[in-house]
């Protein structure tokens, strides 16, 4: 039995997370962990897709006036006589069959709590008029659809990719989970703030860059993500340091500093298409939720997915302070996952 399947049986999952146990003996592409990397390590991860808060909430309810149709064959005629449903309620079915087998119809949206329920239409039992609660917005997820349907039936057009994201497996297959586990393990091996950029394309499947942030007193803005994105630029252009313009000692010092934060930089040429951005189609693995500056750098470089382990409550730009990828006006969207790890 595979580690993945075994874990599925052993570990309880919720509607939004999944857990996988993983034994890793993979070598790690970093310089200061050769001993640790040889130790077999049992690791359980769970994934949580970071999505817009709206998707995790139940749809808000609003009051409408409803009534019971006295003769079912007059339902069509009654529909013609009633004013059309306002666009804001177009996600609702106009008529429903209640538990008693009666047909109920939405007359109109109720503007105020105290507004009396009264109207006269042929085929409508005036004494049956009442206030009913219905979904005030169209349901986006299947869970919202089921919840809203308990009050009044709605129209629903499921988004299959979103539904996958909200399943316990977040839409990943067993092979993809194995890759995630391996990369998360590499990030953890550094035991520092780390950024790893991985190319998930079929003809690559390799770590392109793995970086740490500079110490704050050396450079306060060169966080691990900023160094990694900079390194990706160098990979695309070829090494662009003009040694001739630098003093030898200055260059040597720069290389020492650089080698302490750039743990891996692929020797292969990045095969980006001419129109691609620096990280088009690439996955990013982070020890910590990136700050807003780094989140924006990842957005500008057009990454595909971000996996981070530890939240950053004070500065995090993907979950804690804001959810940059969920803001309405950003011009690129990536998927974000928080990875919880336990040994
Ligand atoms: Zn940062």
Briefly, what is this?
This protein has 343 residues and is an alpha+beta fold.
**Helix count, DSSP H or I runs of 4 or more residues:** 10
Strand line-up of the largest beta sheet: 1-2-12-11-10-7-8-9
Number of domains: 2
In terms of DSSP E residues, the strand content is: 15-25%
Q: Tell me which ligands are bound.
A: zinc ion
CATH superfamily of the largest domain: Cytidine Deaminase, domain 2
Q: How many strands in all?
A: 12
| Overall CATH class of the largest domain | Alpha Beta
Derived from helix and strand composition plus strand pairing, the structural class reads alpha+beta
Q: If you average the pLDDT, what whole number results? A: 82
Share in helix: 25-40%
Measured distance between first and last alpha carbons = 20 Å
- Largest sheet report: 8 strands, mixed
Please give the radius of gyration in angstroms: 28 Å
The CATH topology of the largest domain turns out to be Cytidine Deaminase, domain 2
The parts where pLDDT drops under 50 for at least 5 residues are 1-40
- Molecular shape: elongated
Overall CATH architecture of the largest domain: 3-Layer(aba) Sandwich
Order of helices and strands: HEHEHEHEEEHHHEEHHEEHEE
């Amino acid at each position: 039995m595979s580690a993945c399947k075994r874990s599925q049986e052993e570990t309880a999952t919720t509607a939004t997370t999944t857990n996988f146990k993983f034994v890793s003996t993979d070598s790690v592409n970093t310089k200061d962990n050769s001993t640790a990397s040889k130790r077999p390590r049992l690791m359980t991860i769970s994934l949580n897709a970071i999505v817009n808060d709206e998707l995790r909430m139940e749809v808000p309810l609003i009051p409408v006036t409803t009534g019971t149709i006295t003769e079912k064959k007059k339902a069509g005629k009654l529909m013609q006589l009633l004013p059309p449903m306002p666009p804001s309620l177009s996600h609702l079915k106009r008529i429903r069959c209640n538990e008693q087998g009666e047909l109920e119809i939405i007359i109109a949206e109720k503007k105020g709590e105290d507004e009396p329920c009264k109207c006269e239409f042929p085929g409508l039992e005036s004494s049956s008029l009442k206030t009913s609660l219905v979904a005030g917005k169209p349901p986006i997820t299947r869970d919202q659809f089921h919840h809203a349907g308990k009050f009044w039936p709605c129209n629903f057009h499921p988004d299959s990719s979103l539904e996958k994201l909200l399943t316990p497996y977040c839409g990943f297959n067993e092979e993809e989970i194995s890759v995630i586990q391996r990369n998360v393990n590499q990030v953890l091996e550094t035991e520092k703030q780390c950024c790893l950029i991985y190319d998930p394309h079929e003809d690559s499947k390799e770590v392109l860059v793995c970086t740490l942030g500079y110490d704050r007193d050396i450079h306060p803005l060169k966080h691990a993500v900023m160094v990694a994105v900079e390194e990706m630029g160098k990979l695309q252009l070829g090494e662009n340091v003009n040694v001739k313009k630098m003093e030898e000692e200055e260059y040597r010092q720069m290389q020492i500093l650089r080698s302490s934060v750039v743990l891996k930089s692929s020797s292969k040429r990045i095969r980006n298409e001419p129109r691609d951005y620096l990280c088009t189609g690439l996955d990013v693995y982070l020890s910590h939720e990136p700050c807003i500056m780094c989140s924006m750098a990842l957005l500008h470089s057009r990454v595909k997915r971000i996996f981070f382990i530890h939240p950053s409550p004070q500065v995090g730009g993907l979950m804690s302070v804001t959810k940059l990828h969920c803001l309405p006006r950003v011009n690129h969207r990536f998927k974000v996952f928080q990875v919880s790890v336990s040994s």
